[in-house]
């Protein structure tokens, strides 16, 4: 078994990052001009990295499959971004943010990485304010904060329900400035389909131009993957349909380890599924749980009447309402972490207390906060979110509760990286949601934007220099190298193989089939029998896919169905890897809930004696079982305890 070297610096936790920065190599301004870096993805992680690296003097080539870098899925983030500024004077601190994040991730993250994240969090806010991000402010002009799940302080900075969009616009403006100066070479509508490894080092990528269908070669001294997560393996998720995780999966197939793939987050505050023709789910910001109360009827007969449409939520008097999060978790109430809130909602619905026609919904009610604060205050805080809910459901959330239900959202697993954010392949980096590093088994709300910007603005720009200092004498990468030719040919053959199946079933039909298997057997609750069944079924679907998928249009031209087919081909392999990892981890932790590992009170039960490690999977080739390597997690500053939010 390979020993994974995380390269965590020695010394006290609070000094690791500063001492590490002082010890690693740097590249002079004159030498930066000689070095090329590829950044794949233009969301908050990729966009901030591209802008920062270009400002430092490197030559950056940025890639995205969208028609504009500002259409990255980071734009969909609503609720906010965490930072330990203590603006509310409620005893927040770097250590408290560090502790909350490790606890929220169910003690399955590296201490050193999480502390660094907390340490640089305040700088992110200063950076974004300087870029003009319009954070909400108090009457006196100071930046406003609100609470999010899993914490007892207010540390979340926000811009109404558009935080991701506003942060991305600030980041995109910085990128555009560098594009204008010729330091960033922007490639829109270009999708990574393979990596090029030369003499053991990442030296470039093979992409497909999504407008012309042309296969292209691109070289660089280092490659950065910043392409987000893989939640769309489940088909229905809060992700945009284009989100695919394909770049990270190609890194895995080229030898990069894939860590903790079973750590998938279920978000408790989503608009419930409404039909078979639906292609994605809509997230309602976790910030709504600040002022909304979650409940179901106490009486099953009332739930049945609601399911049949015989009564309305407002017909149920308060004493007949079960505010189950407040009942089960009095300390945190409606602001328990996402995994805890999601399982609690599932438990109530499975017990027959769901409130819509399918029985798969609970209420999120603002009646009490409107009575307490007034409609004007609630409208100022959440007006655009309420408007979005009404447009989608045709129900007015000011005059009745919202209906919500858990859905696939974020992925904590991803490409394995060391403390420098480099994978086990020299010169290949992974940042943001594409790596596994900071959230353990469950991400706290408002921490995705924090990690993406921390990696791109304040971590990678320092650590990548340590590697590139040894590449100064390396000339511009030769695109005629046999490895580029070999990989380009492999991509062309893969596309032709898919296109020439000439079957009878659409790409979406296979994706939906996979999604049903994943949600039913690898979703909110998992068990040994179900996971083994899922692995077998996914293999059957994959076999059928290569025999009967139908891709209309042309091979060497714009072809959206061909794009989707390549992504679904990856999903059909990645879905099996997720199930294998979930089967291997016979414990419950965070978003990974094994029914065999449950406390007497029905909560997730960790097994610290056997599973306090990162599971890093190594690809062995098509049709072969992957090998798992273990990075043991050492906790020197936080005591391992079973999580409690009661």
Automatic annotation (TrEMBL):
Q: Which SUPFAM superfamilies match?
A: FAD/NAD(P)-binding domain (SSF51905), Succinate dehydrogenase/fumarate reductase flavoprotein C-terminal domain (SSF46977), Succinate dehydrogenase/fumarate reductase flavoprotein, catalytic domain (SSF56425)
* GO BP of this protein: anaerobic respiration
The record's keywords, sorted A to Z, are: Cell membrane, Electron transport, FAD, Flavoprotein, Membrane, Oxidoreductase, Transport
**Which Gene3D superfamilies does this entry report, sorted A to Z?**
FAD/NAD(P)-binding domain, Fumarate reductase/succinate dehydrogenase flavoprotein-like, C-terminal domain, Succinate dehydrogenase/fumarate reductase flavoprotein, catalytic domain
User: GO: which molecular function terms?
Assistant: electron transfer activity; flavin adenine dinucleotide binding; succinate dehydrogenase (quinone) activity
Is rRNA processing tagged as a keyword? no
Q: Which GO terms describe its cellular component?
A: plasma membrane
In this chain the Fumarate reductase/succinate dehydrogenase flavoprotein-like C-terminal domain maps to 511-645
Q: Which reaction(s) does the protein catalyse, per the Swiss-Prot or TrEMBL entry?
A: a quinone + succinate = fumarate + a quinol
Give the domain of life.
Bacteria
Q: Where in the cell is it found?
A: Cell membrane
Q: Where is the active site?
A: 338
Q: What is its EC number?
A: 1.3.5.1
Using the record's annotation, list all stretches that form the FAD-dependent oxidoreductase 2 FAD-binding domain.
36-449
Q: What membrane topology does this protein have?
A: Peripheral membrane protein
Q: Which Pfam families match?
A: FAD_binding_2 (PF00890), Succ_DH_flav_C (PF02910)
Q: Which cofactor does it need?
A: FAD
Q: Matching InterPro entries, A to Z?
A: FAD-dep_OxRdtase_2_FAD-bd (IPR003953), FAD/NAD-bd_sf (IPR036188), Fum_R/Succ_DH_flav-like_C_sf (IPR037099), Fum_Rdtase/Succ_DH_flav-like_C (IPR015939), SdhA/FrdA/AprA (IPR030664), Succ_DH/Fum_Rdt_flav_su (IPR011280), Succ_DH/fumarate_Rdtase_cat_sf (IPR027477)
Under the heading NCBIfam families, the entry gives: PRK07573.1, sdhA_Bsu
Family according to the record: Belongs to the FAD-dependent oxidoreductase 2 family. FRD/SDH subfamily.
Q: What is this protein called?
A: succinate dehydrogenase
From which lineage does this chain's organism come? Bacteria, Pseudomonadati, Bacteroidota, Bacteroidia, Marinilabiliales
């Amino acid at each position: 078994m390979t020993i994974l070297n995380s390269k965590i610096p020695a010394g006290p936790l609070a000094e690791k990052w500063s001492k590490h920065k002082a010890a690693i190599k740097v590249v002079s301004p004159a030498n930066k001009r000689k070095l090329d870096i590829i950044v794949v993805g233009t969301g908050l992680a990729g966009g901030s990295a591209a802008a920062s690296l270009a400002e430092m003097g490197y030559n950056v080539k940025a890639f995205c499959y969208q028609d504009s870098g500002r259409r990255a899925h980071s734009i969909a983030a609503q609720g906010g971004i965490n930072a330990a500024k203590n603006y509310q004077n409620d005893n927040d601190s770097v250590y408290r943010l560090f502790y909350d994040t490790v606890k929220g991730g169910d003690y399955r993250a590296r201490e050193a990485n999480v502390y660094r994240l907390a340490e640089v969090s305040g700088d992110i806010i200063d950076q974004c304010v300087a870029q003009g991000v319009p954070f909400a402010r108090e009457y006196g002009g100071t930046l406003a904060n609100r609470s999010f799940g899993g914490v007892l302080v207010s540390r979340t900075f926000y811009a109404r329900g558009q935080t991701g969009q506003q942060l991305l616009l600030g980041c995109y403006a910085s990128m555009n400035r560098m594009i204008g100066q010729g330091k960033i070479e922007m490639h829109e509508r270009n999708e990574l389909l393979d990596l090029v490894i030369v003499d053991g080092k990442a030296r470039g990528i093979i992409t497909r131009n999504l407008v012309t269908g042309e296969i292209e070669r691109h070289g660089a001294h280092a490659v950065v993957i910043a392409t987000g997560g893989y939640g769309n393996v489940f088909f229905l998720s809060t992700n945009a349909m284009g989100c695919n995780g394909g770049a990270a999966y190609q890194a895995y197939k080229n030898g990069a380890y894939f860590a903790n793939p079973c750590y998938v987050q279920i978000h408790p505050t989503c608009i419930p599924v409404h039909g078979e023709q639906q292609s994605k789910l809509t997230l309602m910001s976790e910030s709504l749980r600040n002022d909304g109360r979650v409940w179901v009827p106490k009486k099953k007969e009332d739930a049945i009447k609601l399911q049949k449409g015989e009564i309305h939520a407002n017909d149920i008097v308060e004493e007949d309402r079960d505010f189950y999060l407040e009942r089960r978790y009095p300390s945190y109430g409606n602001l328990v972490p996402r995994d805890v809130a999601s399982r609690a909602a599932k438990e109530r619905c499975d017990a027959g207390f769901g409130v819509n026609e399918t029985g798969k919904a609970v209420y999120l009610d603002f009646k009490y906060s409107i009575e307490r604060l007034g409609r004007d205050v609630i409208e100022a805080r959440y007006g655009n979110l309420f408007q979005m809910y009404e447009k989608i459901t045709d129900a007015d959330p000011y005059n009745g509760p919202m209906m919500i239900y858990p859905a696939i959202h974020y992925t904590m697993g991803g490409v394995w990286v060391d403390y420098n954010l480099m994978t086990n392949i020299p010169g290949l980096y992974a940042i943001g949601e594409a790596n596994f590093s900071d959230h353990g088994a469950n991400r706290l709300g408002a921490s995705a934007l924090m990690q993406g910007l921390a990696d791109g603005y304040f971590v990678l720009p320092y650590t990548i220099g340590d590697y590139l200092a040894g590449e100064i004498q390396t000339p511009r990468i030769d695109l005629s190298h046999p490895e580029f030719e070999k990989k380009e040919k492999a991509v062309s053959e893969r596309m032709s193989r898919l296109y020439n199946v000439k079957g009878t079933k659409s790409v979406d039909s296979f994706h939906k089939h996979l999604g049903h298997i994943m949600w039913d057997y690898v979703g909110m609750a998992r068990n040994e029998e179900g996971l083994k069944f899922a692995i077998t079924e996914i293999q059957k679907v994959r076999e059928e896919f290569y025999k009967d998928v139908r891709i209309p249009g042309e091979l060497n031209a714009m072809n959206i169905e061909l794009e989707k087919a390549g992504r679904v081909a990856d999903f059909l392999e990645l879905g099996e890897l997720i199930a294998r990892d979930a089967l291997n981890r016979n414990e419950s932790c965070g978003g990974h809930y094994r029914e065999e590992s449950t406390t007497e009170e029905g909560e997730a039960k960790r097994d610290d004696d056997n599973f306090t490690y990162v599971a890093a999977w190594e690809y062995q080739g098509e049709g072969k079982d992957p090998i798992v390597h273990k990075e043991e997690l050492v906790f020197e500053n936080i005591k391992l305890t079973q999580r409690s939010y009661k």
